[in-house]
Structure formats: C-alpha cells, structure tokens
Amino acid sequence: MTMRILIVNKFLYLRGGDCVHSLNLKQLLRNAGHDVCFYAMSYSQNIVCEENKYFAEEISFSAKDLQGKIKAASRIIWGIGVVQNFKKLLEEFQPDVVHLNNIHSYLSPIVAKLAYQRGVKVIWTLHDYKLICPSYSCLCKGNTCEACFTDKKHVVLRKCMKNSFPASILAWGEAMNWNKNKLSLWTNSFICPSQFMAEKMQQGGYPASKLQVISNFIGEEQVQYIINTPNPIREEAYAYIGRLSQEKGVESLLKAASRLPYKLYIAGSGPLEADLKKKYTANNIIFLGHLGIMDTIELLKKISFTVIPAIWYENNPLSVIESLCCGTPVLGRNIGGIPELIETSSFNRLFTQDEELPSLITKMFNTVVSANRDELSTAALQRFSGEHYYQKWLEVVGKE
C-alpha cells in the first residue's frame, strides 16, 4: 500500500546521524513507492526541496541580542514559529504517517501534537536521550547520570546543560512542558535503535508497548560504494570517526595512541578539535577533519580497525555500522548500545577502562590480520540493510 510520509528533523544536511538517517529514510521510502516530503528548520546548508517554503524560521542559540534569545527560548518551551506553517504542510500534503527524528529545540514536539490532533499516525525515531534526560546525553560532569529519569529538577541542581544555570533552567522548562504523558499520548510508536535505549526509556516511564527496537541502517548509495570500491591493502593503522566532543571520549584514545607506534587517523570535527590538535602532535596521529560519506568509506577500507571510546550511552552509532559494513572490525567501549552491534564477531572487542586501551589496540593489530573482510562486510550489509529496516518499519506503522 502506497503511503504519504512526512519526515521531520531539525536540519536536513549531512551534519550527524539524525540527518543521515532522515535523508536515507526518504530515499528508502521513495524507492519502495511511497510519497515522501520533509519538514525542518530553515537553514542555509539544508538540501533544497519543494517544501522548503513551509520550514520553520531559523533561530540561533548563540544570538547576542535580546530579541534573538527570546525567540530561541520561545521555540524551546512553546514551539513558537512552528505551528502555522506545519499546519499548512499537513493540510496540503495530507500525510498518512509523520515520522519524527530529532525535533527538540530548533523545532518542537508541538509537531507531534498537531499531527495527533489530525488523526495522523506518529512514529518517532530516538537518536539520543532527550525524552528522559533534559541535557540529551545522560552525562553529568563527565560521568553517566540517570537522576532526571525520575525527577527533572536535577538538571538545574547539577547545571547539567552546558554547566550553565540559565541553560539548565531552560532545559528543565522544556522537559516539564513536553513531558512523557503528552509525548506518549501523541506518539503511536517510538523507534529505539538499540535495546539499551528501549530499556532506558522504560526506566524513564515510557510504556513498553510503544517502544519498538529497530537498528539503524546503511543507505543504498553507501552500500553500492562499498560493494563497487576495490579493497586496498590494509594499512597498519586504525581510526576514530566521529565528533570531537567530550562525550565521545576521544581524548582517552589519543592518550593511548601517543604511547603506541601505530598510525591513528582522527576523522571528524567539533568543539575539542583545536585543543586536541595542539595537545597531540605526534607524527603517528593524523587529524583529517570532517570527511564526507564516500571519503569515510575509503578510509574504513584501508585501515585495520576502528575505535569507539565514547563515555556516554552511545545509542546505535552509525560509525560502528559503517565500519562493520566495510569489513573493518571495531574496538568499542562496553557502554550503551555499542555491545549490541559488535558482539557478533570474534574480531570485535569491548573495553571498559581507559587503561585497557594500549594493550587491546596492540592485540587488535595481532588478531584482525586473519579476519575475512569480505565475510564480515557481507554479514553486516545484510544485517543493516535498508530492506531489513523497511520490513521492520512496516510492522511498526501497521501496529494498531
């Protein structure tokens, strides 16, 4: 049955996992014969599409003028600047399904309410922990924290949002207004990309009946590039691919790398980039900056393995999925949804403490040489295929 599906995400360009997922989902659903359109916040780097005229007005959280700050705060708490145009798009497009992704702050959960009020089925893919943790990450001063699962005031008491009292109050107000009772009412199903995420959502008070686990998938364009790009001779090198930010734990990897002789590629950008480049200047540590999708695949095909040193509850990281699909084993921290992704092969390994990294990195180089890369890649491409995701997605949409 052909459906009309409205995909909602705060941005529509290749800036992170939520955007990659939204764009891949659009292509997947269109290839399956469905009519698909987007809703996002207006932004200069967004892809151009016909429905741009309906997008919410751009806001900035770095605005220095009072009017800009008020506008940003009003978007967070009440969804100001979203309602009118979203209603127009719902009226014109007449979707059967509204599929939400990352919508807090730059957009608003009010879109779920508006779709629900029109009798449209609402599906919501969760890319982080915002619905149970006002600061998204379940981190407080560098340590995992679940205090807000049961009482949101802790975000203020602990200044969890950017270590700022005003920002934490704003996050608390957002969480109190868009609370679990409202969001559970307006949403038919929450798609949790990991079982870990589903369990945490239950801890946070969301009904198990509305939580469906479907792992993220790899886009068809990426699949074709992986299949059709020749496999080079693997370098005696490893890589970190991701955002250079505190929750990703990348400095723990750099400390280990500075003690080892192996070449480490760091692919990504973020708030720690400049400081890390100054601090870690060894010849065997190479900072590549942000890489596009195809350059990332080429890097993954030439290295021995990747490392995921995250200190937060990683949900279902695309960096792990891409690595496995390229036949490249993964050394990942035993946290969040990472174990669910990498416990399928004896060539992947988990670690718990930073002190383990130097010896485990050395062991990885000694063991992955015997890995059958084609076999690893074939198994992962099947496991994370768009077709597999689509069949699960149809089951979720068909519920009720």
Structure report:
The chain has 17 helices and 14 strands. The chain is of the alpha/beta class. A six-stranded parallel β-sheet has the order 2-1-3-4-7-8, with helices on both faces. Strands 11-10-9-12-13-14 form a six-stranded parallel β-sheet, with helices on both faces. It is globular, with a radius of gyration of 21 Å. The model has no long low-confidence stretch (mean pLDDT 94).
Question: Can you lay out the helices and strands and say which pair or pack?
Answer:
Layout: E1 4-8, H1 17-31, E2 35-39, H2 66-78, H3 83-93, E3 97-100, H4 110-117, E4 121-125, E5 139-140, E6 143-144, H5 154-157, H6 165-177, H7 180-186, E7 189-192, H8 195-203, E8 211-213, H9 220-228, E9 237-241, H10 250-257, E10 263-267, H11 273-279, E11 285-289, H12 293-302, E12 305-308, H13 318-325, E13 330-333, H14 338-342, E14 349-351, H15 357-367, H16 373-383, H17 386-398
Parallel strand pairs: 1-2, 1-3, 3-4, 4-7, 7-8, 9-10, 9-12, 10-11, 12-13, 13-14
Antiparallel strand pairs: 5-6
Helix pairs in contact: 2-6, 3-4, 4-7
Task: Summarize the entry for a quick read.
The chain is of the alpha/beta class and 400 residues long.
- Shape type: globular
Biggest sheet, strands in spatial order?
2-1-3-4-7-8
Multimeric state: single chain
Strand segment count: 14
| Low-confidence runs | none
